TrEMBL record:
Quaternary structure annotation from Swiss-Prot or TrEMBL: The complex is composed of two ATP-binding proteins (NikD and NikE), two transmembrane proteins (NikB and NikC) and a solute-binding protein (NikA).
Topology term for the membrane: Multi-pass membrane protein
Official protein name in the record: Nickel import system permease protein NikB
Record-annotated ABC transmembrane type-1 domain positions: 95-303
Cellular localisation: Cell membrane
Example of a GO cellular component annotation carried by this entry: plasma membrane
Domain of life the protein comes from: Bacteria
Cross-referenced Gene3D superfamilies: MetI-like
Transmembrane annotation, as ranges: 12-30, 101-122, 134-160, 180-198, 285-306
Organism of provenance: Terrihalobacillus insolitus
Amino acid sequence: MIGLIIRRFFQLVLLLIGISFIVFMSMYLAPGDPASVIGGPTASESDIAAIREDLGLNKPVLVQYFDYMKNVVQGNLGYSFQTNQSVSDAIFTRFPNTLNLAIASMVVAVILGVSAGIISAIKQNSWFDISSTTVALAGISIPNFWLGTMLILLFSVTLGWFPVGGLNAPFYTIEGMKQLILPAITLGTASAAMIARMSRSTMLEVIRADYIRTAKAKGVKQKTVIWVHALRNAMIPVITVIGMNFGALLGGTIITEQVFAINGVGRLMIDAIAARDFPMVQGTVLLVAALFVVVNLIVDIIYSVIDPRISYD
C-alpha cells in the first residue's frame, strides 16, 4: 500500500506538470489580451504596454511558464490579474462551497443509486425494475441547467420551500441544508442514474454466482444472502463509478453553481477564463486535477479493504 501511495504521488507530480503546460499554452493561444481586459476600453496603448510589462506578459511564453512553475514549486500560485488577490486565498475561500456541494450531491447519488440498483436486481423485470431503469435513463439525459431551473421554479418560486440560490450558511445548520438540497439533487441526479445501472448489473451477476446459490441451498435467509454475501462483492465495480463521479463532481459543479448562484471554484474558474486571468485559471485547474488523483487513490485503498484478495504489490 505504501508503494502504491508513493507511485501515485509521482504520477500526480507528472500529471500536474503536464496539465499546467497544456492549460498555460491553451490560455496563451486563445484570442484576446489579458492586458487589454485589465486596462479596459479606455486604456491607451502605452497603458496596455505598461500592464504587460508589469505582469511579465511581454516575455517569451516558455519563460513565462517556467517562471510560473518556479513559483508553484515554492507554494506560490501567483496573484490574480483581475483582482490582485492571492490565487491560493481566492481558491480556498470558495473551495468549501464546492466541496460541500460535491459531498451532498454524492450522498444523494449513492443513496438513490445503490438502493434503486439493488432493489431492481432483486426484483428483476418487475414494475419497479422497469420504472427505475426508465428514470435512470432520464436522469442521465436531462441537462443540469434545465433540471436546476425546473427545481427552482417548482420548489422555490411556486412552493417556497427552499431558497432560490446562494450557499452562505454553514452546511450543518437548517438553513445551510435547505440551500444545499436543490443543488445537490440537480448535480447528483446523473451520478445516481449511473450508479443505479452499475449496481443493478453487478448485483445481477453476483446473485447468480455459485456461492450465492449454495448459501440459499443451506437455508440462509434472503436478507443475509443479499446484504452480507452478495452486496460486498457487487460493490467493487460500483465503488469505481462512485469514485470517478465524485472526482468529476468536484470539477464539474460549474453549471450548477451558475444556476444556483453559488460562489464556488466552478464560478471562479468561469470568471477567470472570461477575464483571461492566467494565474487563477491555472490554480483552479491544478486543484481539480490533484483532487481527482487523490480520490482515485482513496478508491484503490477502499478496494483492498472490501476485498483483501486485491493486492497492489
